[in-house]
């Protein structure tokens, strides 16, 4: 986003992500996306990011396509078409193949099966996977050959990198943004049980929205009392970047001096407030620490 905001990236292709809710410092994100000469978004719904796009490529959902998923325990699973995709939506592989063709690279893909065959041919840890095998079992990578049983436990007897693990000391480094007199509280953001990420899908469920349908902030009883904030009342939260208005939940779950907000909702989005500061090594944004102030709306 930094390079796009500076005009160094002129075309951006966003695939299955919604940075206009999930990325930090949404004011900067919006500026960067609008500065692109061409913004392409490929998704199953018209997300907040897709609404800014020059071109939207409608994809199919998990229930509308053939293919595979690899989950967090390294298990490769088959996905089969249950219902037809609506309108002009297409499978992701088909969209990518068409773009490759129009850019002058003639690939030969005609199915998701052929895509997995190529993955197995060029990725050693996936070498043993095929649609035929996945009809009968779900091995976990590394699975280098068709005869290999898969790897249920990654580190047995030794570490995967060799006999010894690699340890590096991590020295404390304070967060880039610290509270001060003007912004005396720390805002930390995260997730809740009911919603996934930017609620592009879970936000379509009436039942889930009955349980968690609005953005809110958790505040300690002492901090709430200082500002005359009551449980269920509306509050305004401001950082050095923006101000938003959300519901207040007065609770002992958070310590004094700290506010907690789920980031899921576009209305009253927590990431209008968060900082663009990055971890120097992992380059992960500092979602957990932003200096803010709060008052009754």
Give the oligomer, counting copies of the same chain as homo and different chains as hetero.
single chain
How does the major sheet shape up? 6 strands, mixed
List the uncertain runs: none
CATH class of the largest domain: Mainly Beta
Question: What is the overall shape?
Answer: globular
Order of helices and strands: HEHHEEEEHHHEHEHEEEE
- What class, by secondary structure content? alpha/beta
Tally of DSSP helical segments = 8
Proportion of residues in β-strands: 15-25%
Give the count of structural domains.
3
Helix percentage range: 10-25%
Strand line-up across the major sheet = 7-9-8-11-6-10
Give the averaged pLDDT, no decimals.
93
Second rung of CATH, namely the architecture of the largest domain: Beta Barrel
Please tally the β strands and state the result: 11
Structure write-up:
There is one protein chain. Strand 8 and strand 9 form a beta hairpin. The mean pLDDT is 93. 19% of the residues lie in helices and 20% in strands. The chain starts with a helix and ends with a strand. The protein is built from eight helices and eleven strands. It is an alpha/beta fold and 297 residues long. It folds into three domains: 2-58, Dimethylsulfoxide Reductase, domain 2; 62-134, no CATH class; 185-296, Beta Barrel (Barwin-like endoglucanases), CATH 2.40.40.
